[in-house]
Amino acid sequence: MKQKKRKIVILAGSFLFFGFWIVALLPIDDGLQGSYQISGDIEQPHNPKDLFSTLMAPEYSGPKDKTFAFQGICNETITVQLQAPVNPIKTVVTDAASQSAQVKEMVKSMGADLVGICKLDPRWKFRGVPLSHQYAVVIAEALPYRFCKEYEDDLKAMISTRAALDFYKAGGRIALFLAQSIWELGYPARAHYESWSQVMTIPVAIDAGIGELGRNGLLITPQFGPRCRISVVTTDLPLEPDKPKSMGIRASCEICDKCALACPARAIPRGGEALSGGVSKWPIDVKKCFNYWYKGENSWVRCLTCMTSCPWNKPDNVLHRLGSFLASRSSFNRWLLIKTDDLMGYGRCVDTLPKEAPQ
Amino acid sequence: MSIAWYEWLGWLVEALLLVLALLVIGSTISEGEMRPTVVSAAMFGAIIGLWTWIMVRYGKQE
Questions:
Q1: What gap in Å lies between CA A315 and CA B21, rounded to an integer?
Q2: Rounded mean pLDDT of chain B?
Q3: Is the Cβ of A319 closer than 8 Å to some Cβ of chain B?
C-alpha cells in the first residue's frame, strides 16, 4: 500500500517538474511586438546639441571640436579626425553577406559587446541633417554589471556613475576606427556617438535587432539589459541588414513598472504605452530627468536608478541567458521571472536623493 | 537489486534539480550578490530536501 502511494507521489512530482519545463519552454506568444508601432508621421527631434543647449546650456562644456582623442595601447594620445577624405579608389564589394560578417568580426574584436546592421530609416535622423547613407552599423558597449548596481556608499556610486559616462568614449573609439576603415575602402561613412550623433541611436539599434525599447526609455538587450552604450556608423558600403527581433522585452515592460516606481524624478510613466511623436512607447519626461540629475555648471548627482531597478539588468551568465530565453516564450514566464526578481532582491532601490543639494 | 521504472524517473528529477541548483547558486555566488544566493540556496535546499526524503525515506519498505 505504502509502495503504491510512493509511486503516485513520485509520478505526480515528476509530472509537475517536467510539465513546468514543457510549459516554460513552449513558444506561446507568437504575436510579440519587438519593433516599433508607428502611427502617422514620426516627429524628428532636433540635433542633440540643440537639445543640450535647451536643457543644459549655456554652461555645458562638453565636446565641441572635430577630433576625438584617446589613449592608445602604448599610452600615447591618439587623435582621430571626425571627418576625412574618402579613398577615390573604391573597393568593389560582391558579397554583402561576407562583408557584413567581416565588419561584425572586426567590431567585436575591437571590444564591442554587440553589433548589428540595418538599413538606415531616414525617419531616425535628426531634423535637417544632410545624411544620405543607406546602412547603419550599430555598436553596443555594455557597462560592467558592477557599475550598474545601486550603492549606498557614495564613493562607489560616484565612481560607477563617472565610469558609466566614460563608456560612451569606448564605443565612439570603435565607431571612428570602423568609419576610417570604410573610408579607406572608398565608401563614405560617419561615426555617430555621444553628442556627435546625427541619428537616434535607439530606434536604429532596434532595427538592427540588438534589443527593444523599454519602459525606462533605454535600449534593453537580452544579454546586458539596459546597460548598453550605443554608437552607430552610417555608410554606403554594401552590407546585409539584420532584422528587428521580438525578445519579450516590451511585453515584460507592460507588466513591470519597477523603474517607474523607483525613478526619483518621477520621469517614467506607469501604465500602458502612449503615442508620442508618432511612436507607441512610454514617453519619458526628459526635463524632469535632466532637472533631477543635472545641477548646472557641469555638476550632477548620481542616478542610474532606471538601469539598476530593471529586471533585465543582470550579469551576462548562463543563468540569466536562460531567464532571457524563457522571457521570450510566454507571458507566464515573464510574470514568474519578474516575481522571482523581486524575491531574489535584485534591483533593490536605494534612496538616491542627495542629502544636501550641491552648491 | 533492481529499482522500478518510476524510481528511475524520480532519480532523474533529483539529478536535474541538483544541476539546476548548482547553476543558480553558482551564478549568484559569482555575481557576489548575497540575497539571491541565500534565497536560491534556501529554496533549492527545501525542494531537494523534500524530494530526497520522498525518494529515500518515505517509501522505505517495512
A1: 18
A2: 87
A3: yes
Could B9 and A343 be called an inter-chain contact, meaning their C-beta atoms sit closer than 8 Å? no
Q: Is A106 helix (H, G, I), strand (E, B) or coil?
A: helix
Contact partners, residue B41, CB within 8 Å, separation at least 6: B25
**In angstroms, rounded to a whole number, what is the distance separating the alpha carbons of residues A180 and A176?**
6
pLDDT at A60: 36
Per-residue pLDDT for A324 more than 60?
yes
Burial A320-337 (b: 16+ CB within 10 A, else e): beebbebbbbbbebbebb
User: Closest partner residue to B9 among A14, A322, A344, by Cβ?
Assistant: A14
Contact between A195 and A64 under an 8 Å Cβ cutoff? The reply is no
Comparing C-alpha atoms, which of A63, A17, A80, A35 is closest to residue A244?
A35
Q: Does A10 touch chain B (CB under 8 A)?
A: yes
For an interface test with A, give the residue of B3, B5, B6 to mutate (most A CBs within 10 A). B6
Whether A89 contacts chain B with CB within 8 A? no
Cβ separation of B10 and A2 shorter than 8 Å? no
A86 compared with A53, residue with greater pLDDT: A86
What ranges in chain A are assigned the alpha helix state H? Answer: 2-25, 48-55, 96-109, 154-184, 201-207, 249-255, 258-262, 286-293, 305-308, 318-327, 331-344
The ipTM assigned to this model is 0.84
Q: Which three cell numbers stand for residue B43?
A: 529554496
Whole-angstrom distance, CA of residue B12 vs CA of residue A47? 60
pLDDT digits (tens, 9 = 90+) for A248-283: 899 999 999 899 998 988 999 998 888 877 788 899
Q: Is some CB atom of chain A closer than 8 A to the CB atom of B41?
A: no
- pTM for this prediction: 0.82
Q: Per residue in A15-45, pLDDT tens?
A: 999 998 988 888 776 666 667 777 767 777 6
CB contact under 8 A, A2 and B62: yes
Chain length of chain A:
359
Q: Are A273 and A323 in contact (CB under 8 A)?
A: no
With beta carbons less than 8 A apart as the criterion, state whether A19 and A237 touch.
no
Among A11, A145, A346, the residue with its CB nearest the CB of B36 is A346
Q: How far is B39 from chain A (nearest CA, A)?
A: 6
Which one of A6, A21, A145, A322 would you mutate to disrupt binding with B, by most B Cβ within 10 Å of its Cβ? A6
